[in-house]
Amino acid sequence: MRMAKGVEWALHTLLNLDMVGGGPVGSGQLAEAHGLSPSYLNKQLQQLARAELVVSVPGPRGGFSLAKPLETITLLDVVVAIEGAAELFQCTEIRCSGKIGELSPPPKGACAVSAAMRRAEQSWHDALAAQSLADIKADLDRSPLVRQIVRSALT
Amino acid sequence: MRMAKGVEWALHTLLNLDMVGGGPVGSGQLAEAHGLSPSYLNKQLQQLARAELVVSVPGPRGGFSLAKPLETITLLDVVVAIEGAAELFQCTEIRCSGKIGELSPPPKGACAVSAAMRRAEQSWHDALAAQSLADIKADLDRSPLVRQIVRSALT
DNA sequence: GTAATGATACTCGGATATTGGTTGTCCGAGTGACCGTGG
DNA sequence: CCACGGTCACTCGGACAACCAATATCCGAGTATCATTAC
Fold first, then answer.
1. pLDDT at residue B51, as a whole number
2. How many structural domains does chain B have?
3. Which of A19, A84, A128, B117 is the most core-located residue (most Cβ within 10 A)?
């Protein structure tokens, strides 16, 4: 069980898009900034576009730009955009299969195991939703030359 | 990103092992109870044995039995036993690669993105560690005939 | 009758295929920019 | 000098392969049981 690399790529790329300013930036430049596969980063950016976190501009001088300010983008938004909204723990209802399932009456309530796992997952989601990309950007701005480096790398 | 099925299998199997009593139960019977692949459940049980959540008894009349009371087994223990202790979000340090990486001085602090993701993951771990299998068993004991069904299915 | 002994059946344990999903690559559709031409 | 039209290069977008890990399966190693036999 490992989170897709695309999440890390997307997070850094979104931060870069903010630092560079408003204009659209091509996926090739964004990939070069961190030595990533351009085509694959492009695919991740399309996922972000579908989630309406970025807007895509076709044609020459096109590319991707932020759709909203970083303050309104949470870590959960990015994770869901890349990974999808499926739950980590997916209950297969094995309690209704096999010998035990045949002997038991059809269960009424929810599966206790599933409910417990869902509770834990909920607090993960809450913690992800509580942190916005602006918070992370504030950390990066501790060393103010970062912004200059990003801007010069993306021109 | 999806949690392995083995976690669900392990959780239900551990609960069954508790309900059936102290004697060892073969992986075949445990699998039949929920209609699972016997060999694959056996593999998961070996993982639980390495984590010292169950003890394995070889030979005829052998099988697996609980190594400690359910009160001392948390959801986190089971997840780590099956999935391993690796983190969901694994930082690749892409901030040190590509153009930006070459232009930047070697970073001093930890990656802000990684730190934020780790915070969220920590609260997931905390929530998993806060729930023991005894808590789940208490939920199941709402309908007291469950125990009888499990015992009759595992004899 | 009792104890030793060998065969046997049953279990765990790990080595070996198979499948599904992530990762990576490629080419086509579409669009804005640029250049040349005519008014 | 300005407006218009055609060509072009550049970008996104989705379809297509490669790789890795989870899933599933199989066979060998080890052990308690049971029957048999000798004392």
1. 97
2. 1
3. B117
Query: Taking CB atoms and an 8 Å limit, are A12 and B94 in contact across chains?
Result: yes
**Residue B155 pLDDT greater than 90, yes or no:** no
B149-155: list long-range contacts, CB under 8 Å, 24+ apart. Answer: B149/A100, B149/A103, B149/A104, B150/A100, B150/B16, B150/B19, B150/B20, B150/B33, B151/B19, B151/B20, B151/B21, B152/A103, B153/A98, B153/A99, B153/A100, B153/A103, B153/B32, B153/B33, B154/B16, B154/B20, B154/B25, B154/B29, B154/B30, B154/B33
Residue-number span of the structural domain to which B56 is assigned: 5-153
What is the per-residue pLDDT across A3-32, written as a single tens digit (0 to 9) for each?
Answer: 999 999 999 999 999 999 888 999 999 999
pLDDT of residue B22 exceeding 90, the answer is no
A37 at interface of B, judged by CB pairs closer than 8 A? no
Of A9, A75, A83, Cβ closest to residue B1: A83
Q: Is residue A17 part of a domain?
A: yes
A32 occurs within a structural domain:
yes
Amino acid at B95: R
- Judge whether A99 lies within some domain: no
**Which CATH number characterizes residue B88's domain?**
1.10.10.10
Footprint of strand D on the protein (CB under 7 A): A 1-2, 24, 26-28, 39, 42-43, 45-46, 49, 56-64; B 2, 4-6, 37, 39-40, 42-43, 58-61, 83
How far does the CA of B59 sit from the C1' of D32, in Å?
A: 6
* Overall average pLDDT of the B51-63 stretch: 95
Amino acid, single-letter form, for residue B129? A
